Amino acid sequence: MKTIRLTYKVLFLFLALGLGIILQAQSIRTKLSQAKVGLGKVFSVTYEFTGSDIGKYEMPDFKDFKVVGGPNHSSSTTIINNRFSSTKSLSFNLKAIKQGVILLPSISATIDGKNRKSNTVSINVVKGFKTDKEKQQDKMNKQIRENLIVVPIISNRNPSIGEVITLKYKLIFNLNIAGYDLIEEPSFQGFYKKEISKEPASKAETYKGKNMQSAILKEYVLIPQKYGKIEISDLEFQFTVKTQNRRSRDIWSSFFDEGKRTNVTVPVQSIKLNVSDFPKAGQPKSFEGAVGKISLASSLSKNTAKTNEAISLKLILSGNGNIKFIDLPDLKFPDDIEVYDPKIADNIKENSAGMSGKKSYEYLLIPRYAGQYKLPSIPFSYYDPSKKEYIALNTPEYIINVDGEAKQENVSGGKPIIAGKSVDLIGKDIRYIHLQHQGLNASNDLYFKSALFWVINLLAIILSLGLFFYFKHASKFKKDANQLRNKNASKLAKKYLSTAKESLDKPNKNEFYEAISKAIYKYTSDKLGINNVDLNKAALVEILSEQKVPEPLINSLISTLEACDLARYAPSSETQMNSLYQQVKQAILEFDKLA
Fold first, then answer.
1. Lowest mean pLDDT segment, chosen from 35-44, 317-326, 536-545
2. Three-class DSSP category at 185
3. What CATH number corresponds to the domain at position 254?
4. What is the pTM of this model?
5. Do 263 and 143 share a structural domain?
6. What pLDDT score was predicted for residue 442?
7. What DSSP string describes 369-428?
8. 98 and 145 together in one domain
9. In terms of DSSP H, where are the helices of 406-509?
10. Dist. CA 220–CA 203, nearest whole Å
11. Domain span at residue 359?
12. Which of 64, 165, 451, 544 is the most buried (most CB within 10 A)?
């Protein structure tokens, strides 16, 4: 009797379970990652379809939310008692943009031939609400940001239009930094901009009474090109901060354990500048926008010459300021002196100090007729923002004495005219018309089939053959050169490693890390026959992956490069440097085995 009752109970249980599975097997369920979310925060919603035959469905309209991710699809299949059941999931990442209890849209679909609709769910959006995980992350980020500050340093917030200023973004830190990225380049609308490219180097600094490290992350030379209030937009840096899983005496050991990496975003506020216009009072006629501290020098190669003999006039602008964009005013020369376009050369540097250098103009003058000529003084002026006044400069006047006979030509029906005296337009390229032939003879010879014709065609054939063999040889030479680079890669790597080993005992440890980095980049580029000019860690990973290099070996090389980068921010011991040296040496040996 007991056995019969037990059998009924088991049977009832299986029937209930089967009925539940059947009911569940034809449903659409809506799931939320959380029931409460902060305004502006992101959460996920998932629509789960269950059934043996799931038909088409329409995408939901999230009018009260902003879709920041999705739709993401996934599916699975189960078999229970020879019955197939499929489960498909459709998920979205949504950003809460309205406060209050907000209903999420339902979704409908045909499942096993029947119309099904998802259950209705709502989410409570509260301004300032944070989950426990977000609170914990905020607490950690706050502690990190107290030891991770980016300070903009601008040389002048009230410059003049055209004045050269510098902008630096300085990092002040007391953490183990594995790397950083500029999320978005700031906007320099209204400025000439030149970024100064150099590797950041750290140094000790006291900041608000704390011993910290500092490094310049970004540096720019700027020139405002309009006056008024101009703003350099805000920006964000993202830093990868490495925390250790175990206690250690120094920061370096984090590269030799599985420390946790945390990405922290550090915002930098916008910079507002008040740019002044050039003052109208006292502005010279020769002023054309030069700003700074500038000098003008001139020299004449000789002041006595013969007709048709070349004379060189050289003008040099030098100093500090917007010298890159300065030009001389139009120069006026006597009509009887032929003037060629000037040869312009410059040597201008843009660095942390701003913009400086020199710009030279060399004019070639050819007097065509005898006489005495005067080269007038050349006016030049610039605005000095430190004195807030214009400075006028002038070159000296030059007198050129030209020896030679005055050129005389006969004009039909008239009397002789002395060139340069009676004809004022000679300096404007007007020449006399020759009324008699100048020794030209008519020819009846045909060019076709002449000796010159055959010589030219023969030379063309020889030139074509020469180019063919040249390019063929160049292709072979390039192939041989790549093979030679591959062959010598290990020797070159050993050379850099030898330099690194010699640097272990030197006080400047940067030489060691520079030699290690060069060994890796130069070895891999020569081994694979690629150009290492633009090679960086990201490009190296991509290239090595394409070449089917084992992932552990790639990770070893990249972690070593990261270690070298970090050495600019953190102190290191000789033991750690030796360990890094052995790691690189072993990685190169393993790489050689792949060849």
1. 536-545
2. coil
3. 2.60.40
4. 0.50
5. yes
6. 55
7. S-EEEEEPPPEEEEEETTTTEEEEEEPPPEEEEEESPPPEE--TTS--EETTTT-GGGGG
8. no
9. 451-502
10. 20
11. 289-403
12. 165
